[in-house]
C-alpha cells in the first residue's frame, strides 16, 4: 500500500472543508472507485482529490492514534475507505445549526477589529443562501455596549480622523478630555475598545468604548508618531507586571470567582472555606473601590495602606448612615 503524493494547490479553506466532509461518505458508498471517476463526480481535479485523501489520512477522532484515524486502501488507481472515524454521512445542518451559524457570522461581521470583514460577509452570504427562509428569521444581533458609539468610532478609525473624547478612567475614578489618533477598533473579553495614540499621555492607550462619555470627530487626520504600535492583547487587556502594587486578600467561598476573573499570582487555602489570594492592581485607589464592592466575605491582608484606606472609607460610609463605627461590617473588610 502506498500513500498519495502530496502536491501544492490553491483552494479556499471553506471549499476544501466542505469537500472533505462529504468525501468520506461518498467513498464509503463506492468502495474501490477509480480516483479519476471520483474526481469527476466531485468536480475537482485528480491532483486535488489526491491532496484531499492525503489530508484525510491524518484526520480522525480525539486521541489521534493509529486506530483513531481515517484509513483507506489503494489498489492501483482505486481507493476504498477501510475506517471512517464516524464520518459516515454527508454533513447536513439542522435548522437550529444553520440559524446559529448565521447569527454568529452576523456578530463577527459587526465586531470591531475584524481584519477581513469581506471574507466573513462572503461566507455569511453563502450560509444565508443555503439556509433559505431561516436567514430571514427575526433575530436581532447586537454587540455589547453602545453600538451607535461603536459604529461612530469605527467610522472615524476607517476614515483616519482624529478624535476628541471625554473619558472616564476607572482606575483613578476621574474623567478627562483628550485628543487621540485612533489606530484600530477591537473586541477583547466581550468589550469594544479603541486603541489610539493619546496626545495627552504621549503613548498608545486602550479606551473602553462604554467609558467614552462624549466623542467629537475633528477636522484633521489621525497622525500617530512612528513609535505608536498596536499592543499584543492575546493575553487580555490587563497585563500584570512586577512594578504594579501587589495586594493580598482573604476571601470566602462566595468570592472565589475572583481567582477566575482576575490574574492571581498566588492562591492558597486558608482556614475553613477561606482562600488567600494575591494579585497585581493598577493602583491602590482601584483596589480600595474593588474591595469595598465585594462585601463582608473579603479581608485585606496586605498592604497595610490599603487596609487603612478601606477601613477609613467604610467607617465614613457607615457614619453617613449614623451607624456606629464599631459595627462588625467595618471590621469585616480589614484586619
Automatic annotation (TrEMBL):
Residues 150-216 form the WYL domain. Residues 248-318 form the WCX domain. GO terms for cellular component: proteasome complex. The keyword Metal-binding does not apply. Residues 15-128 form the PafC HTH domain. Transmembrane segments: none annotated. The keyword rRNA processing does not apply. This is Proteasome accessory factor C. It comes from Micromonospora mirobrigensis.
